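Let's practice the habit of predicting before peeking. Look at the sequence and jot down your guess about where helices and strands might fall. Then scroll down.
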Amino acid sequence: MLKGRNIVCYSRTNWFDEYAKTVIEITKVFAEDNQVLYVDYQFTWKDALQRLIKGSQKPSFAQIMGLKPRVQSFPTKNGVLHLLTPPPIFPTNFLSRGALYVWLHRRNVKRVNKSINKALKSLGMEEQLVLINSFNPDFGAYSKNSIASSLEIYHCYDEISAAEWAAKHGAPAEEKYLPMVDATVVTSEGLLQTKRLKTPQCFLVKNGVNFDLFHQGYTEDAKKPIVGYVGAIDFRSDYKLLEACFEAYPEYEFHFVGKVMEDRIQAILDRHENVKLLGSMPATELPAFLKTCALGIIPFEINEFTKGVYPLKINEYLATGIPVISTRFGQLADFEDIASLHAEQDAFVSALKLEIEGDSPAKRQARAAFAKENSWYGRVAEFGRIIKQLEADKHA
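Done guessing? Here is the structure:
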């Protein structure tokens, strides 16, 4: 495990997001034995004003505006986690690519980087700094040499060119950024195939699970037929497949934990009496929810975006011991013998009844044992070995 180092993580993920996120989990483990600065999502002036109106959201309006200290520090086991809320920036994502976008975006990057360098200096973290840019090529491509680091790694966990919300500016920025870094770390075989020829070195570190947390939901007791899903209900989901499941099993209840992202999706789910939408839950409450489920599903569409996904939820489900049924949306060979994987709708639907009725204590024990081998501690140990290897290569 990497220890006693200075690490800055330049992210596009809100630290206070309701869902478990790859970069958050990795950062937490790195911070147990290292001094880590996590650069929170780059909120816009619009985001700040929305918080002023709504209140209660984190970070608060006062935090974003700098009315409170921008850096919050939390001691860990043998390290420190520092959380930086950067100053608000101009919204630019709505702009077309062109001179205005580039001019405003460069100003935004400069503004955020200035706050990062100020924080690093005040924390004494400037020496032998490892910079991990987690899925934020928009800023990375315009930041070269702005943050003095001994090593710069791009952490890629989704196919940005297939993400509607990020593709317009993110995809060309990623093309520019990939050759600029020392290495790229990806989370799936699909991403490894698309990134490896564009960057100096490419490594695979798959997503993991907070096993100790999710195993709290483990039980071998018999369950009523509740089919569970955890995560945003959005463009990734196959709604024809879901409706087929709802209609095939009116005696089952389908419980969804997460935000419904579109009105049309809400309308589909509202049509079925055996569907219950439970809203978002903090990660600490998910094990108790999964403990009520007889089975967990991952009903993703099979497309260009999902083929690069390694879902966090698959190991979270398995840690609780419940059966898992998923579409074959990506490279899921690791789960062939422990989960039920299907490319066809009819097979997926039939599997629900088969998996619930064929479950057993022995199968639950095997699933939990499998998930334990995929803990975040193991993944961060892999990431740490890559950092050490890259540093050794640089000094060879």
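How did you do? The chain is about 40% helix and 15% strand.
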